[in-house]
Amino acid sequence: MAALTRLSKPACSAFSSINGIRRCLASAIALEPNGPSYVPPFALSSNLPRKDPKDRNVQWVFLGCPGVGKGTYASRLCNLLGIPHIATGDLVREELASSGPLSQQLSEIVNKGKLVSDEIIIRLLSKRLEAGEAKGESGFILDGFPRTIKQAEILEGVTDIDLVVNLKLREDILLEKCLGRRICSQCGGNFNVASINVKGENGKPGMSMAPLLPPPHCMSKLITRSDDTEVVVKERLRIYNEKSQPVEDFYRSRGKLLEFDLPGGIPESWPKLLQVLSLDDYEEKQSAAA
Ligand SMILES: [Zn+2]
After folding, report:
1. Distance 218 CA to ligand 1 centre (A)
2. In angstroms, what CA-CA distances link 60 with 96, 274, 280?
3. Where do the domains of the chain lie?
4. The domain made up of 18-45+59-169+239-263 is a member of CATH 3.40.50.300
């Protein structure tokens, strides 16, 4: 548990490996004349600053099925630790909403429930890290990246990931949650109208998850994303499971994978998550200081 104990007091010193990631992700693409296939990490890592984790902010990855709520937990942790939450899903949606060069290509992929290619994700991530670096960001939680073993290998080659948190939730509940997702068409807020109440059976504990309802002024403006139909969601989960297994194995074999079975909604899960991350004291200190 040494690795986890070490994380209990995240240092807040400035750190510069974001710059390194951006540079190396960019060069990983540039090196390939026909698009970014795998570039051996050792070729990229030689000139990069790799700070001791105690001298910099945390560098974590959050894994989990679409709809598991990893964005919510990653975002809360980022607020707590004062680090950026970099969600590749958001990067994709932002690009889709823009009239950027990739938006047409992206909308075709997303509407079919397929996953976006490594090349596009790395291009978007690279752009995001560059923008963050200009604002003086430090540390990060990556959400939705790496999604393939190739991406994990590229990432491994350019920076140190301290910990990979794999959030898990029963598949039937996951599907119900995915179908309950709504977005406010006016403010862009994310909500969930699914009210989950599963009784415990065959030794499995019951689970209840309250809906995440919008404030009254958003209620009449809720829309469902076009890719949140049952067929598309099931296909997305199938593809996710198939692709995530090697990524999980990759980090498991390096001793960096922390499996976390969500015991319920945010009220049940958040305190337990802080506990396993050795951050429960950290949150108390933060609120005392505030
Ligand atoms: Zn709204």
Report:
1. 4
2. 26, 14, 17
3. 18-45+59-169+239-263
4. yes
